[in-house]
Amino acid sequence: MAEAQRAFLEILEAVTRHNTAKILLDGRALTGEPSIIQRFLFGEFTAHAVVRYRQEHRASRALQFAFVLHEPVLDPQRFGETVAVNRGMWVKVFDNPDDALAWLR
How far apart, in whole angstroms, are the C-alpha atoms of residue 16 and residue 12? Predict the structure, then answer.
């Protein structure tokens, strides 16, 4: 969990450097099977990190995140996505990059 959180914060740093608002995260190479609580905690962490980012950078535009994952990292019920969305993050999880790119456009 700590590694995933650190990596997400690095992604937010890259967002700042590249001044972008649409982010495609390809996590198809990730392995593991996150528990429900891990999905909850990561969704909550990412949403709070994005809210803090927007406040600190006075960002006028929302950041749009598309995650591409495979099961079992990808939860078919999209619980982590729901947690993040309910906390103000604009995010959607996909099982293929074409759908993710289409959504980002």
Answer: 6
CATH of the domain at 66: 3.40.50
Q: Within its chain, how far is the Cα of 86 from the centroid? A: 13
What are the start-end ranges of the E strands in the chain? 22-26, 64-68, 90-94
What is the tally of structural domains in the chain?
1
The DSSP letter of residue 27 is: -
Q: What range does the domain containing 87 cover?
A: 2-104
User: Whole-prediction pTM value?
Assistant: 0.93
Q: State how far the Cα of 56 lies from the Cα of 28, in Å rounded to an integer.
A: 31
Q: Read off the DSSP letter of residue 74.
A: S
| Span 36-63, pLDDT tens digits | 999 999 999 999 999 999 999 887 789 9
Residue 64 structure tokens: 């749009």
CA distance 69 to 8: 15
